[in-house]
Amino acid sequence: MAKITRNPAPRKAAVPKKKAKAAAAKRKPAKKAVPAKPSLKAPRPWTPAEIREAFSRFQQANPEPRGELEHVNPFTLLVAVVLSAQATDAGVNKATRALFEIADTPQKMLDLGEERLREYIKTIGLYRTKAKNVIALSAKLLSDFGGEVPRTRAEIESLPGAGRKTANVVLNMAFGEHTMAVDTHVFRVGNRTGLAPGKTPLEVELGLEKVIPSEFMLHAHHWLILHGRYTCLARKPRCEVCLINDLCRWPEKTV
Ligand code: SF4
Questions:
Q1: Domain with 121 in it
Q2: What share of the chain is helix, strand, coil (3-state, %, to 5)?
Q3: Hey, which end of the chain has fewer CB within 10 Å, N or C?
Q4: Domain boundary among 130, 147, 173
């Protein structure tokens, strides 16, 4: 006997084929987006042994590296660094050779005066602002620090025209502190080699300070600057003569 269903479910209205297809397509889970390019793997970080090896080679090649900014005492070093912002060391030296003969102390700089100072440094970019800063920092050294260049980062950074990089250079070169001044060369080398990648000079500075063994820190700043200036050039790095080409992590190195 046939089973009687009292309330049969109402039959679904027939959906036209085209509409059904469109609805099904809508319900399909979206395909996973495939990245256009496979993401590049971050280079393998340097091992402590590799870092030691790199700096041993720098040390062997140049045991006593020197900065190229000419100066005769901490004050003239400070002035030279302030003048070197966005200028080459060679350009600064050309101007300061004559200047430091007559103004190698804050008092002598004040006696010279802003107008005459401008004449000495007018070949350096931004010389008007820099002259103002050098006069103001000389006055502050006399009024707040007994005419001496102070020995702490905060005090140096409080001087007109002096920032973190200036403080790092002065602390390292004048007072033998293990600081790492990051200029354009050190920034490039830190990133390219993979020694201390960073988006800002401060990130690179802190990264380098973290990985470089203390015994190399006194000269590390100069080794890296000189490496960037003469070997790991911005446009065409000279990888074929590079001391650390086997250790460098730059994917585009030419060796
Ligand atoms: S191998 Fe080339 S890119 Fe790497 S540090 Fe040396 S010069 Fe620079």
A1: 74-173
A2: 55, 0, 45
A3: N
A4: 173
Residue 179 tokens read as: 């600081």
**Residue 41: inside a domain, yes or no?**
no
Selected catalytic residue, list 165, 199, 246, 253: 165
DSSP letter at 228? H
> What's the mean pLDDT in 203-224?
98
Q: Is residue 89 part of a domain?
A: yes
211, 195 in Cβ contact below 8 A?
A: yes
pTM above 0.85, yes or no: no
114 exposure class (CB count in 10 Å sphere: 0-12, 13-18, 19+): middle
176 confidence band (pLDDT: 50, 70, 90): very high
Query: What's the CATH number where 157 sits?
Result: 1.10.340.30
Q: What are the b/e assignments for 36-65, b being 16+ CB within 10 Å?
A: eeeeeeeeeebeeebbeebbeebbeeeeeb
CB 151 within 8 A of CB 171: yes
In the residue annotation, 31 being an active-site residue is answered as: no
Which residue type does 77 have?
L
Distance of CA 77 to CAs 60, 198, 230, Å? 27, 28, 23
Task: In whole angstroms, give the CA distance from residue 227 to residue 221.
Answer: 10
> What integer pLDDT is reported at residue 18 of this predicted model?
53
Q: How far is the centre of ligand 1, averaged over its atoms, from the C-alpha of 224 (Å)? A: 11
Catalytic residue among 89, 183, 199, 210: 183
Q: Which atom of ligand 1 is nearest to the CA of 242?
A: 6
| Average pLDDT for 50-56 | 98
One-letter amino acid of 229: R
